[in-house]
Write a structure and sequence with these properties.
The chain has about 450 residues and is of the alpha/beta class. Helices cover about 35% and strands about 15% of the residues. Strand 11 and strand 12 form a beta hairpin. The chain is globular and about 115 Å long. The structure holds 2-acetamido-2-deoxy-beta-D-glucopyranose (4 copies). The site of one 2-acetamido-2-deoxy-beta-D-glucopyranose has 3 residues, from loops.
Length: about 450
């Protein structure tokens, strides 16, 4: 009897425990939210605060607007109910005295209230600008970063597009020019933009309907003329960019070869190349960068680059030491000659400048390529995927640069292979007699 009672109660206790367990499984989520079971740590709260406040609110392009909006944002953060706990708020208020609410004018407070009414996730560029503070507080008399940024004269970029068939645009041809007198000379006569187009048609080996052409110029009159010259064209698409940098242009041939002049000039060229490339590229798979004063080339040279890009054939000559890892083709260049020089382009080299392109050329035939660590820009093939990943022409000496100083090498075309390698792609040169001809 005693034993039967005790076994009945054991069964009851076990059933009760079972029901409890089932209830627990059903009603308590597998990954309980931290707020239900554990108090959120500062880290958790900061993380979610960032998600709702930061990640969705930074699409602005105009840096002057952005800078002001940052101040606006910081100011509203002070009033925000859900402001981040612990050190984020402290950090803002201790490092930026200008955000002190007591110093806000009535107008600023109205702006602030308006922002709160509209929520924090609106793009910062849509927020109204704060009026300038009156010159009465110590903060407004001291020069602030905001005013410096606002005074920067941003270059103008004007962009014209003429599309015949966007989905056929496969080969993006890019050319940076200064003005209409920079298309080189043929037999002592200045070449014109229309004759550059004829040259492309005759030598690139690319079908016109697959070409997407984009020209950058720095003068308004050239811009107008290129736009009208391309009002009808046989290409998939044609684009003209007017880009007016604020740095003074070429100061005359006398200075051209001084090191500092070269650095300034190459920085300008690198930036212009990037502006054109990033503005023009949409869905094209391949990019061909031409120097505007390339006046002739081996017929079919672009088609040969495409062939090597999709089915690379690398020299096995014992005279060329290949890199330890053969990287897939990212960029390809070709020998550049001018009237008097067989290989004009001194920016194409290998083995940290120990070997120039002309040292390697004899060991690769026309069906082969040889490795390079640096390229020039006379004609440059670039796999467009790399540009989508962020590849660009460095505008400073990127190789060996540290936080406080520039490096010793790798500006403009000379740095692009260095960057491509970090993305896992290599640079190559066309062997044999493939070449372009540079105007003298
Ligand atoms: C546009 O290009 C695509 C891809 O090459 C082609 O299939 C299509 O027929 C072209 N459309 C016209 C109107 O030419
Ligand atoms: C392009 O070249 C072809 C021959 O390859 C020629 O028939 C055509 O007229 C040229 N077009 C232009 C615009 O020069
Ligand atoms: C190329 O390599 C071969 C074999 O190593 C050697 O005999 C020849 O001298 C080299 N040629 C040049 C031009 O360096
Ligand atoms: C690669 O180059 C060799 C010559 O060195 C040539 O015989 C061969 O046909 C080439 N292969 C391709 C796919 O072009």
């Amino acid at each position: 009897m005693v034993s039967s009672t005790s076994s009945t109660s054991t069964v009851r206790i076990l059933s009760f425990l079972l029901i409890l367990a089932i209830t627990y499984i059903i009603f308590v989520p597998a990954h309980p939210t931290k707020t239900t079971l554990l108090p959120p740590t500062d880290h958790d709260r900061q993380a979610s605060w960032y998600e709702t406040h930061i990640s969705t609110s930074k699409p602005a392009k105009d840096t002057s607007v952005d800078a002001e909006s940052d101040i606006v944002q910081k100011e509203t953060e002070q009033q925000d109910d859900s402001q981040p706990p612990s050190d984020i708020g402290d950090h803002i208020s201790s490092n930026n005295e200008a955000v002190d609410d007591d110093q806000l004018t009535e107008e600023e407070k109205a702006v602030q209230a308006d922002h709160q009414a509209h929520g924090q996730n609106e793009p910062t560029r849509d927020r109204p600008k704060l009026p300038g503070k009156p010159d009465t507080t110590k903060h407004s008399t001291a020069p602030s970063h905001t005013s410096i940024i606002t005074e920067l004269d941003l270059p103008e970029i004007r962009h014209h597009t003429q599309t015949n068939n966007a989905s056929a645009a496969e080969h993006l041809i890019l050319v940076v020019t200064h003005d209409e007198s920079h298309w080189g000379h043929v037999d002592g006569t200045p070449r014109t933009f229309p004759s550059f187009l004829e040259f492309l048609n005759d030598t690139s080996g690319l079908p016109a309907p697959s070409i997407s052409l984009a020209i950058l110029t720095t003068t308004e009159s050239a811009y107008g003329h290129y736009v009208s010259a391309l009002s009808t064209h046989p290409y998939a698409k044609a684009q003209v960019l007017l880009y007016t940098p604020t740095i003074p242009e070429d100061e005359g041939p006398a200075d051209r070869h001084t090191a500092s002049f070269q650095a300034i000039r190459r920085k300008q060229i690198a930036v212009a190349r990037n502006v054109l490339m990033f503005t023009a590229l949409t869905t094209e798979a391949h990019i061909f960068y031409f120097d505007s004063d390339v006046i002739d080339a081996s017929p079919g040279i672009c088609a040969q680059m495409l062939k090597q890009a999709s089915d690379p054939n690398i020299t096995m000559s014992p005279n060329i030491t290949l890199p330890e890892t053969i990287l897939p083709v990212g960029l390809i260049t070709a020998r550049a000659q001018d009237g008097g020089t067989y290989d004009y382009d001194l920016n194409a080299w290998y083995k940290q400048r120990e070997q120039h392109m002309h040292d390697l050329l004899p060991f690769a035939n026309s069906e082969e390529m040889f490795p390079l660590q640096s390229v020039g820009g006379t004609l440059l093939y670039i796999n467009a995927v790399l540009v989508r990943q962020g590849l660009s022409f460095p505008w400073w000496y990127v190789v060996g640069s540290t936080w406080d100083k520039e490096g010793g090498d790798g500006i403009e075309t000379e740095g692009i292979c260095y960057m491509a390698e970090k993305l896992g792609y290599g640079c190559w040169g066309l062997g044999g007699d493939w070449h372009v001809v540079h105007s003298q």
